[in-house]
């Protein structure tokens, strides 16, 4: 392990995660642009955006078991190639299917980053897994902040074409590719600890693991599903809805970066339960508020979802260590599966709730094509406002379920201590 440069590998991992976040943030802000430019419904855009989650899941499911076989470095190389291919293909996209395929590439790239970097970090920092995972995953919301601000800046200087924002992603992609180049990687914790593949497979079908995997679907759907659609859902609540995503992500980044000590000293079950309660309150408030209060409610929601992902991974790694890289891969993969399921579902709910808010005697086609400043345009804005608010109220059902599940987990773990 003397030849392993932990700090350099950790920093390179953080840059790679920034790229995955940039893909998430920028594509979330392109929802309306794609719908307009390529004449797509929100449901179709939901399928496109959701493809990134399916690609992520595939990369995690297949990459996790391969980490010990082909090595962490080769998984990182796959991530780099797919990031470059996905970004370039998105820039030259011409419609639904080209966006679908390019998004799949980016999803595979993002999943490969997680498949390699999570076990890399837990292998290097065996005594502070959850703390280090939180610091690592702080760079996901940080990347979303960067991506959101880039989109906002480009829009304000006249570079409103979404292709410019996509092209910017190539810079950090080449940076992390260079940072990982010719680096020596450690063996995974499972290999060092002497757990066999049979031990790993057996632990991944244990009742506790399966329970956490199911909860991961719900926590990820709450976090990733909502954040991917927040700009579209609240486009008529704020003049700059992308700033809501920046606000949420900024709070998440600070919480993960500087809340590591708190996380290290509290039980994971307490954090997960508290997070669910805050996420539920935040979503309900966002569904009923406007103006400055939207940012207040979004801040509560951000504190709720901030620790979901890294704490779920940390809980599994600490309580089921024999699950190894495969366990982390399954958790990450199934988490993005939850995000994938949420994307078209949110799009469909948004479409349905918006349609219900259309005034009698009007049609979506007429209102959608209305000229700015007309009565029809105002009616369309009001319908979208109502549709977005109602969608957020529906999403609140998910953290409500998590409150019940994590309450059960808290008392179960307390009993077994």
SSE blueprint:
Blueprint: H1 6-29, H2 31-37, H3 42-70, H4 72-91, H5 96-124, H6 129-137, H7 139-156, H8 162-168, H9 170-180, H10 189-193, H11 197-203, H12 207-233, H13 241-258, H14 260-265, H15 268-286, H16 292-305, H17 308-319, H18 324-356, H19 364-368, H20 375-395, H21 397-416
Characterize the structure shown.
The protein is an all-alpha fold. The chain has one domain: Growth Hormone, Chain: A (Up-down Bundle). Helices cover 82% and strands 0% of the residues. It is built from 21 helices and no strands. Helix 4 (72-91) runs antiparallel to helix 5 (96-124) and helix 7 packs antiparallel against helix 13. The chain is globular and about 70 Å long. The two termini are 33 Å apart. The model has no long low-confidence stretch (mean pLDDT 83).
